[in-house]
Amino acid sequence: MNAPLRLLRPADFGRGVALAGLGVALGEREVTNAELHAAGGPLSPEEIVRLSGIEARRHAAPGTATSDLATRAARDALDAAGVGPADIDRLLLATVSPDHPSPSTACLVQHALGLPLCPAVDLSAACAGFLYALDAAARAILTGDRRVLAVAADIRSRYLNPDDRATSALFGDAAGAAVVTEGPPDRGLLAIGLLADGRGARQVYVPAGGSREPASAETVAARRHTIHMEAGPQVYLTAVEGMLGTAESLLKQMGLGFDDVSLIVPHQPNKRILDRMARLAGVPSEKIFVHIERVGNLSGASCIVALHEALRTRRAGPGDRVLLLAAGAGYTAGAALLGL
Amino acid sequence: MRDQVLAVLAALADLPPDDTAPLALDSLTTVQLVEALEARFGFTARAHEMNEANLGTLSGLLAWVERRAGTRP
Question: Global pTM?
Answer without folding.
Answer: 0.96
